[in-house]
Write a structure and sequence with these properties.
This protein is of the alpha+beta class. The protein contains 10 helices and 33 strands.
């Protein structure tokens, strides 16, 4: 395999389009346009909020039953409908479209874990499906694997994949058109090299051929293989790379492995219905939320709406501005108000990205670990600016060498704790802090590190939008205040496990951090003369004006690692060139 990029991203329906506007943008990059009826089993799952429409894919496997990923059904959209027999979701014909699917007809695998991607598979029972739907020339079942088929060794097999949307990474919106291509199933060891979680027998690993691949929101799309002259379903797309035209391997859920669960669920012997539980409903009512859409890949992509009033067409068009950093409902900062706040800008496919950071010591900036991962390049740090990209500034660094990026050694993109990192700004002038607009933020001392922060009011600052539903993001420094609350509130809302390394903040009475505010500071006032850094923006809700709490990394819990890293006694450098070269050699040797 040639020219593979090493890109690690959290996969829980994590297309960058989803993370900004609730939009999953499915596509087969560099593929071939499908003919009407060529993939009669391919189903479009159209998901609606009050304002937006999103897409996943599914596979028609039996009358009234569609197979897809658990992640597509576990994201809090309000209404779901299914469209059959269509290769153009906006302008083309369709054989039939379902009514709104009741959530009680979602059958999610009981052992699904969205943080490790294990058992990411689900069924939809389409209650109102006509009995004669498969009489339509453009609708039909896929061949579900028989017991004999399930014994087939798939390694080395050429498979067919299909999906709606963009044709490569360089275009900036989907047209909702079905494309297809081929891929080669390979050893799971190849995918394991670039994943932070275990790739198991639940999974299949597939290599793109000529850089043609499923991508991002093609979640639920079928992978089929010819077995005994039948076109047999073998995989469901689940763990998809962010960049799709560069040959990165893709992980599919292994249908052979889940064959018995699928059959038992359809036959009613092991049905696991997943709707809104009473407990979840009470939480939502208490927090005054309509839905919860949760984002761990906080560097998000900006959504660009068209003027067309057709909601599906409008929401499938996605811009190429690759961040949405925001303090929603906040106040605009003035120059020098947050002298420790820095803007960390970097490049990614299709545009630029930004995170926040805090100057804690000469040449040292504290930020989130996920902001300085290898999916970004050309990092620069800007000091004393009110606009992350175009505003005047006191000073901007040269491109930061990879060796100067220090990620916590226990950071894992699929988990929450230890999302913290340091940047060594080697060319920072000695006299920079002589400026009234540049200064250090105080770190907690020993006594302050043991303070009970619950009930304290924190101040968070960051660049970006001020509300959820504007079309153009604005990288201007804003700030807000919010109370620190018990971690179990965040745990209940997001169904996650937190530790003493995390802080939870209430956003119901004030503003909220959002998206690429990641890495930015939260401070508290200890006394009139002393303000200290207590938190780093980590996990933020995708929709930031509906009162969902925010999750921060606790600075006090990481004081020892920060001090050791700065002092050089335990330097954890991230050298992209060496690591990537080693991985490339390993992949090459494994093929």
């Amino acid at each position: 395999m040639k020219n593979i990029l090493i890109i690690l991203s959290f996969i829980a329906v994590a297309s960058c389009e989803l993370l900004t506007d609730g939009n999953i943008t499915p596509f087969v990059s560099n593929g071939t346009k499908a003919d009407l009826g060529e993939f009669p089993y391919h189903v479009a799952i159209v998901m609606f909020t009050e304002d937006n429409a999103s897409i996943c894919s599914g596979t028609f496997i039996k009358h009234k039953w569609v197979l897809t990923t658990a992640a597509c059904l576990n994201y809090g959209f309000v209404n779901y409908t299914l469209r059959f027999g269509s290769v153009d979701l906006i302008k083309g014909e369709k054989a039939w479209e379902s009514g709104v699917i009741q959530k009680s007809n979602f059958k999610i695998h009981p052992d699904y874990d969205r943080y490790t991607n294990v058992n990411n598979i689900a069924l939809i029972y389409v209650e109102d499906m006509p009995a004669n739907l498969t009489d339509h020339k453009n609708v039909g079942f896929i061949d579900f694997p028989s017991e004999s088929d399930a014994k087939t060794n798939l390694t080395g097999k050429i498979a067919v994949i299909s999906g709606y949307g963009l044709i490569n990474d360089t275009v900036d919106y989907t047209e909702g058109v079905l494309y297809h291509t081929i891929t080669e199933i390979t050893s799971n060891d190849v995918c394991q090299i670039i994943q932070t979680y275990n790739v198991t027998e639940h999974d299949l690993c597939a290599l793109p051929i000529d850089n043609k691949s499923v991508c991002r929101g093609d979640y639920g799309s079928a992978m089929t293989v010819e077995i005994s002259s039948k076109n047999v379903l073998v995989g469901i797309a689940t763990a998809i790379p962010k960049f799709c035209s560069v040959g990165i391997p893709v992980i599919y859920e292994n249908v052979f492995y889940h064959r018995e669960w699928i059959l038992h669920t359809m036959n009613g012997s092991s049905v696991v219905s997943v709707g809104f539980s009473f407990a979840a409903l009470m939480i939502m009512m208490k927090m005054k939320k309509i839905f919860i859409i949760f984002n761990l890949l906080v560097i998000a992509c900006h959504g660009q709406q068209s003027e067309d009033t057709n909601i599906l067409e409008r929401e499938m068009k996605v811009g190429d501005q690759n961040i949405v950093p925001t303090i929603t409902n906040g106040s605009r900062a003035i120059l020098g108000q947050f002298p420790y706040q820095v803007a960390i800008t970097m490049n990614m496919a299709g545009g630029q990205a930004v995170c926040g950071g805090s100057l804690i010591k000469h040449k040292w900036v504290l930020t989130s670990a996920h902001c300085i991962r290898n999916i970004y390049t050309n990092f620069r740090v800007t000091f004393a600016t009110l606009n992350a990209f175009t505003g005047s500034h006191e000073w901007r660094s040269d491109i930061i060498p990879r060796g100067n990026l220090h990620i916590h050694p226990e950071f894992n993109i699929t988990l929450i704790p230890n999302n913290i990192g340091l940047i060594y700004v080697s060319d920072m002038p000695e006299t920079l802090t002589n400026s009234p607009n540049v200064g250090f933020v105080e770190m907690p001392n020993d006594a302050e590190a043991n303070l009970n922060l619950i009930g304290r009011t924190g101040t968070t600052s960051g660049y970006g939008r001020t509300i959820d539903n504007v079309n153009l993001w604005d990288p201007i420094l804003h700030y807000t205040t919010h109370d620190i609350i018990a971690n179990n509130v965040c745990e209940s809302v997001y169904n996650v496990n937190l530790s003493n390394r995390n802080l939870c903040v209430d956003t119901t009475t004030g503003g909220s951090p959002c998206a690429s505010d990641a890495g930015g500071p939260m401070t508290i006032q200890i006394n009139p003369e002393r303000r200290i850094l207590v938190g780093i923006v980590g996990i933020t809700p995708s929709f930031c004006t509906i009162g969902n709490p925010g999750i921060y990394e606790s600075v006090a819990a990481h004081r020892d690692w920060i001090e050791r890293t700065i002092n050089g006694s335990s330097m954890i450098g991230v050298s992209f060139a060496i690591v990537a070269a080693a991985i490339m050699m390993t992949i090459k040797n494994s093929l």
